Amino acid sequence: MTNISVLLALSLFSTRFIQKLLSYSSNTSNQLVLTFAGGGTNGPTPNFSSYTLAKIALIKAMELLASEIPSIKFVSLGTGWMDTPIHTQTLEAGGAAGDAYFDTLKRLEMNNFGKPTDLLNFVDWAISAEKEIVSGRNFSLQGDPWSDQKLSEELKKDTSMFKLRRFRNYDG
Questions:
Q1: Kind and range of the H or E element at 33?
Q2: Are the C-beta atoms of residues 151 and 145 closer than 8 Å to each other?
Q3: Which residue has the higher pLDDT, 43 or 82?
Q4: Going by C-beta distance under 8 Å and a sequence separation of 6 or more, which residues neighbour residue 140?
């Protein structure tokens, strides 16, 4: 099985696992399922295609689960550059990691990573936010003003915002 097949199978397994787990949960209000999206959802990530495909599948799964189980909030979060073991793996891959190798070196030298406290603040915000604002959406921890009231109003108006969509159809 290729890396892509394995990672897509894991994404499918994760979705089914979440569905099964939720069948055992109580019907208490304000439940949140949070998954972590990754790089590549907004542009190509050469040499990381299987990783990116698995993350995109997980983002879409959260959107689908949000529509299938509207009583629970399903949220994807792109954390941005956090200090995690993937960076060690990228460095070990050397040239096979492409530009990510040099980006990782630069981040490590500058200690330029997201803060765990921001992650915890996002979780608190997502738990308290209305379902129509967060559920089924993919947020960027470092790139979106997720706690801003103006953004919340925009998300209420635009049900496709922060979701995987084809940009538009040909009109002519």
A1: strand 31-37
A2: yes
A3: 82
A4: 77, 78, 80, 146
